[in-house]
Write a structure and sequence with these properties.
The complex is a heterodimer of chains A (110) and B (116). Helix content of chain A is 0%, strand content 57%. Chain A is mainly β and 110 residues long. In chain A, a hairpin with a 2-residue loop joins strand 7 and strand 8. Chain B is mainly beta. Helix content of chain B is 0%, strand content 51%. Chain B is built from no helices and twelve strands. Chain B has strands at 3-5, 10-14, 19-21, 24-26, 33-39, 46-52, 59-61, 64-69, 74-79, 88-95, 105-106, 110-115. The chains are: A mainly beta (110), B mainly beta (116). Chain A binds chain B through residues 9, 31, 33, 35, 40-45, 48, 50, 56, 58, 88, 90, 92, 94-99, 101-104, and chain B through 4, 6, 9, 33, 37, 42-45, 47, 50, 91, 95, 101-104, 106-109.
């Protein structure tokens, strides 16, 4: 069964910590995305990548960075976590008109 | 501006009722795609339907139906005879075929609760 796998379902981190959210896809998709989901705001795009080592800012990149060293893996990095980054983070991958999503990581920053 | 609006934040119905989820979009492009996704409590967004801007035919799939009207920039989703398993958050999304690397622009989502 093809899938997008996010390494953690729930994560609790302290303010100021460096946080890594990992995402792996097994569909050989070129494009990968990180979204943030907040109530009343839907999904907002943080960053995306269209190829290995390539990245583009989405709509809300501030406070985040990403890494894509291998085609199947796309990491979201919070350099210094803050409480306003408490949210649900969804990873996705796509090729053509098909987009598949992971189950999300609920991050709480305390 | 490119935008998707789902004005209904939450809807609560009793099982077997019909329910319509509204979606209104904004774009100046003539070619685009519209999607509906379902997000059950497990968290993963599940694809329901895709429509391109040149195909205004309504679609029916079992208890689900979609009404696409370019004249009103709407792509509404109706669930007939709702069931408890339909309880989820539903997202409408917009995408463009060229550039943007398949980025999806999402609405805020509508939380549907179906009670027994």
């Amino acid at each position: 069964d093809v899938k997008v796998t996010q390494s953690s379902r729930y994560l609790v981190k302290r303010t100021g910590e460096k946080v890594f959210l990992e995402c792996v896809q097994d569909m050989d998709h070129e494009n990968m995305f990180w979204y943030r989901q907040d109530p009343g705001l839907g999904l907002r795009l943080i960053y995306f990548s269209y190829d290995v080592k390539m990245k583009e800012k989405g709509d809300i990149p501030e406070g985040y960075s990403v890494s894509r060293e291998k085609k199947e893996r796309f990491s979201l990095i919070l350099e210094s976590a803050s409480t306003n980054q408490t949210s649900m983070y969804l990873c996705a991958s796509s090729r053509g008109l098909t987009t598949r999503f992971g189950s999300g990581t609920r991050l709480t920053v305390v | 501006a490119q935008k998707v609006t789902q004005a209904q934040t939450e809807i609560s119905v009793v099982e077997k009722e019909d329910v319509t989820l509204d979606c209104v979009y904004e774009t100046r492009d003539t070619t685009y795609y519209l999607f509906w996704y379902k997000q059950p409590p497990s968290g993963e967004l599940v694809f329901l339907i895709r429509r391109n801007s040149f195909d205004e035919q309504n679609e029916i799939s079992g208890r689900y139906s979609w009404n696409f009207q370019k004249s009103t920039s709407s792509f509404n989703f109706t669930i007939t005879a709702s069931q408890v398993v339909d309880s989820a958050v539903y997202f409408c999304a917009l995408r463009f075929p060229s550039g943007g690397y398949n980025k999806l622009i999402f609405g805020a989502g509508t939380r549907l609760a179906v009670h027994p």
